[in-house]
Design brief:
Length: about 150
């Protein structure tokens, strides 16, 4: 699977000239730990996080944001996205299409993906459902007790 299949496309973002307090309000209101910082043409120029708001001095987002952004493209494989989140020890990764914000993927998005993937032991069909599938979509196997959870890319 690719990033485009699980990314959140309606992303709350801020502009660099907004105040630190405005960023804090958005973080609090939407219960997120970080926000992309974008220009007027939706080009990503940074990220502002809860840590930035609490730990850095400055009145504007431009003063406290992190400019080095870790990102992926919509075509990036979910296994790679998972590796980036784990090994870079970050909570979210921006999905950029030619530098413009296309979406965001959080650790929670990937956990949800893992929780919703099932494979049929008879034909190997991979199914997506938050509930235990009753039958296989492809072969109709009904022995649901043997359907197993699989991680992305398995």
């Amino acid at each position: 699977m690719q990033a485009r299949e699980v990314m959140t496309t309606q992303v709350i973002a801020v502009k660099e000239d907004q105040t630190k307090q405005q960023a804090a309000r958005l973080l609090s209101l939407y219960r997120v730990s970080g926000l992309p910082v974008v220009s007027d043409d939706n080009m990503v120029i940074g990220v502002v996080t809860q840590r930035d708001v609490l730990g850095k001095d400055g009145q504007r987002v431009r003063d406290i944001m992190t400019r080095g952004v870790i990102s992926v493209t919509p075509d990036t494989d979910l296994d790679e996205v998972s590796r980036i989140l784990v090994y870079k020890r970050i909570r979210r990764v921006l999905v950029l299409d030619q530098g413009r914000l296309a979406g965001i993927i959080s650790r929670g998005d990937l956990v949800e993906e893992v929780a919703s993937r099932w494979v049929c032991p008879v034909c190997g069909e991979i199914m997506h459902s938050m509930h235990f599938p009753e039958v296989c979509n492809r072969c109709g196997a009904s022995d649901v007790s043997t359907l197993e959870l699989v991680a992305p890319g398995s």
